[in-house]
Specification:
heterodimer; A: mainly alpha; two-stranded antiparallel sheet; 20 helices; 2 strands; disordered C terminus; B: mainly alpha; 3 helices; 0% strand; elongated
Chain lengths: 515, 115
């Protein structure tokens, strides 16, 4: 049993207290440790993804306790893909934070950042539903700290809404876990998958509650309409790089939906009948439409990007709600793309904000470093709106292709294409008002000189755009990998067998529990 | 006993939800606490309600109580306690800064500079 699979959780968990205890007064040392930690995370995640890429399931039993009793950490293609995505995103966000000096405007940024990474990594890797709840709380409590980093009244008020909404979500999660445990007597995902299949069709009254509650919880995380109300304020008011890091947090919800509803509650199960097609699909389509209408209606640049994130999550959910191997593969491709696109846009918004009195979409004199920032915004907006040549176009094409033969085909094509058009208009309007019309305004008499943003900031935002370009150029390879991941998800038998049958302490024949 | 526990969960949830739907932070936080109490009792009940039964295998005993939900409840209590403390601090900060404790956005505050 290799210990590497636990490293993405343990490394940030050790680094964060170290930064607080040993380096709290030295921002330079904090930066070095944080950066080295994230680089190590990328290396470890890449190694794990390489190991898992041939279909190997990496299992780690904590304390060597066998599966239904002990906690397991499991790495398959999906988990390792997501942790690699997280660590790469974290690197660019960290570069931006260091370049723009955001970490120096409040205390303990790097420690909270590492705890946030620990929570996200744990949520992606755990093989136990209660553990998933615990890691959700870890990533949330770190995100509360990051969200109100550097303070300010508007930010604190948005923070209160964000915390309360997520506390409600956590309470719902516990209710769901309680009903699952009462019905099946286990919370290990693989064990649960076996037991959920054993429940006969006429005895599903109790277990039916659980998938619905879990879907609500994950939909809150993924900001699916009508559970999206927390997102626009919190993402718009959070510090720019923090909002960029939060781009992965909505994907945690999407990941959890994919994991739970392919393995534990697959669509053919009696207990989940109607959940995907009757409930999730319309909600996803409305999210997509509402998000892109929000892009057009937004009065400031940060809200515009927040609504674009809601729209792109709607797009992901449309693909997930198809619940076919092609749909999930398309969703995975779009998840990677929209993480980079959302993060890049939030970083660019922060670049604009650094030399503009407000982010309102009104005509103001040009910002410092306008040509480069405008070029980056142009590229990122193209990606987010899904125009060729960047990866958003390919992702959208894959989703449209996956939905072609399904009963929702007409609806999906109409909403996806209509929403894209609206978002193009919205982004065009924002870009022309902020960057183009700025040249028509007389600059003030004695302009206070504002330095152009640090080159590290541009490296970070530009790096994310470059990653999207690479994701387009190597789209064929990426797509093949997503298809393989999706196939692994839709045949979960090896995953379940490895988790349940691997020997450990207490793994005798009497492993059935007492229910 | 089932009726007692079930109605306790129900009443706690109902009052909690009512308070959460208020507009000011203090009742909302109280409501959140009531909801977490409700969920803790609910988690307890998920391991079946038994009185005076041992939680570990012992000779000559046929009825057992399930120890796992108690461990889950302990974790949930610790987490919800910590979360409540965090939300109280943030809400207090927001109240002292803006001089009102309304939870929702006021019209026109969007454009105010945060810093």
């Amino acid at each position: 049993m290799s210990h590497w699979i636990i490293a993405p959780i343990v490394l940030p968990a050790m680094l964060a207290p170290f930064i607080v205890l040993a380096a709290r007064y030295h921002i330079g040392i904090q930066r070095v440790f944080s950066l080295v930690g994230v680089l190590a995370l990328i290396a470890i995640s890449a190694g794990l993804a390489w190991t898992a890429s041939d279909g190997t399931i990496i299992l780690y039993q904590l304390g060597d306790w066998a599966a239904p009793f002990g906690i397991v950490v499991v790495g398959d293609m999906l988990s390792t893909l997501m942790i690699l995505l997280t660590s790469v995103l974290a690197l660019f966000v960290l570069l931006y934070v260091i370049g723009s000096g955001w970490d120096d405007r409040g205390r303990h940024f790097h420690a909270l950042f590492q705890f946030q990474l620990m929570g996200i990594m744990g949520a992606f890797l755990t093989g136990d539903l209660f553990n998933l709840f615990v890691f959700f709380e870890v990533l949330l409590i770190a995100s509360y700290g990051l969200m109100i980093h550097a303070g300010g009244n508007v930010r604190l008020r948005a923070g209160v809404q964000y915390v309360l909404f997520n506390l409600l979500g956590s309470t719902l999660f516990l209710f769901a876990l309680g009903s699952i445990y009462a019905e099946t007597g286990t919370l290990n995902m693989a064990d649960l998958a076996l037991r959920a299949q054993l429940i006969s069709g006429d005895a599903t009254v109790g277990i039916r509650v659980a998938p619905v509650l879990l879907l609500l919880v994950f939909a809150i995380k993924a900001a699916v309409v009508p559970l999206h109300f927390w997102l626009p304020s919190s993402y718009a008011e959070a510090p720019g790089p923090v909002a960029a890091l939060f781009a992965i947090m909505t994907k945690v919800g999407a990941y959890a939906i994919i994991r739970v509803y392919t393995m534990i509650f697959p669509p053919e199960l009696e207990a989940t009948a109607g959940l995907h097609d009757v409930w999730l699909m319309p909600a996803a389509l409305i999210s997509l439409a509402l998000g892109m209408i929000g892009v057009l209606a937004a009065k400031s640049l940060d809200r515009l990007v927040a609504f674009a994130v809601i729209g792109s999550m709607g797009m992901v959910m449309v693909a997930i709600a198809l619940m076919t191997p092609e749909g999930i593969a398309a969703a995975l491709y779009y998840i990677v793309h929209s993480t980079f696109a959302g993060a890049a846009l939030f970083l660019i918004v922060d670049l604009v904000k650094s030399s503009r009195p407000s982010l309102a979409l009104t005509t103001l004199p040009p910002i410092a470093g306008a040509p480069l920032t405008a070029g980056l915004f142009f590229a990122a907006a193209i990606a987010m709106a899904g125009l060729p040549p960047l990866s958003g176009f390919i992702g959208k094409l894959l989703i449209l292709d996956a939905s072609f033969d399904t009963p929702f085909g007409v609806w999906i094509w109409a909403v996806v294409l209509g929403a894209s058009l609206i978002s193009i208009v919205g982004f065009t309007r924002a870009g022309s008002v902020v960057f183009w019309k700025a040249n028509s305004v007389e600059p003030p008499e004695d302009p206070t000189p504002v330095a152009a943003p640090h080159f590290l900031s541009y490296t970070a935002a530009g790096g994310l755009v470059a990653l999207m370009a690479a994701f387009t150029v190597f789209g064929g390879h990426a797509q093949a990998y997503m298809v393989a991941t999706s196939e692994q998800l839709f045949s979960p038998e090896p995953y379940i067998a490895i988790v349940v049958e691997t020997e450990g302490k207490l793994s005798d024949a009497n492993g059935e529990g007492d229910h | 006993m089932e009726v007692l526990v079930a109605s306790a969960v129900g009443i706690l949830t109902a009052t909690g939800l009512y308070l959460v739907l208020r507009l000011r932070t203090f009742p909302v936080i109280l409501g959140m606490s009531l909801l977490t109490y409700a969920v803790n009792v609910f988690l307890f009940a998920s391991g079946r309600l038994t009185i005076g039964a041992p939680p570990i295998l012992t000779d000559g005993v046929t009825t057992y109580t399930d120890p796992l939900p108690q461990a889950l409840v302990l974790t949930a209590i610790v987490i919800s306690f910590g979360m409540t403390a965090v939300v109280v601090m943030i809400a207090l900060g927001a109240y002292l800064g803006t001089n009102d404790d309304l939870v929702d956005d006021r019209i026109g505050t969007d454009e105010e500079d945060a810093a």
